[in-house]
Amino acid sequence: MQVRLLFILRTSERTYRFPLLFITAATSAVGTGLYAAFRPQPQTGIMVAFAAYNGALTGASFFACREYVVSPTLVRFAPWKQYARRRHELGMDAASENALPPRSLRDLRTNKLLDSGTSGALVAGILRAVRSGGQGVIPGMLVAGTACTILQYGYNEMSIARLKYLSKQREDISLPTVEQTGPSKPWSERLLALVGVRVLSDEEYLEKMKKKRDAYLLQIADLERKREERTLDEGNKS
After folding, report:
1. Half-sphere exposure for 150 (CA within 13 Å, toward CB)
2. DSSP H or E stretch at residue 2
3. Greatest CA span in the chain, whole angstroms?
4. CB 66 within 8 A of CB 77
5. Which keywords does UniProt give here (predicted)?
6. What would the DSSP string read from start to end of 42-97?
7. Is the pLDDT of residue 22 over 60?
8. Domain contains 179
């Protein structure tokens, strides 16, 4: 199960990495548009477009920094268990898989927290230095690093919840269906049984109808016989 969770988690990260750039841009544009709606500003369209551009640029810078600078550096040099496992998965470490401790939910929750926090701090520091000339670089790095760490943790939690849901669905599908000892009675039959009325089965109802049919046939035969006798009596009298 842990291997399957890891595979789906890594696949989902690759799948959603680039759409997240569009989500970042759209979020920036929507936020700016809402701000302009409550506090009208001149050239609102330009502001929204510029916010979307900044959001996309920031997202692209963050993912590029994390995937091509920070993560490779941490994977190569960091001594912690998460990065030792990633080195082994990339073929950089000849350690046996049995030598590595089993992956736990805590490992999934802390997945790439350091990568995202460091990348957010670096990107925020660089952008702050370019735009403000070095003023407020350290506070910007701390705020951005903390925010990116929290967002990565939230993403990990949502991934774990999704994986648990998928795993539960697979377990439900794989469970054998238990055969019932008898057909379940509808609520109407159970209600009638409470008041002493028994519902006949199909076989019992068919047998009852056959008996009624035989009784009706006897009555018909008796009526025909009486009609013939009455006809004969009328003929004799005439």
Report:
1. 6
2. helix 2-38
3. 137
4. no
5. Membrane, Transmembrane, Transmembrane helix
6. SSHHHHHHHHHHHHHHHHHHHHHHIIIIIHHHHHHH--SHHHHHHHHHTT-----G
7. no
8. no
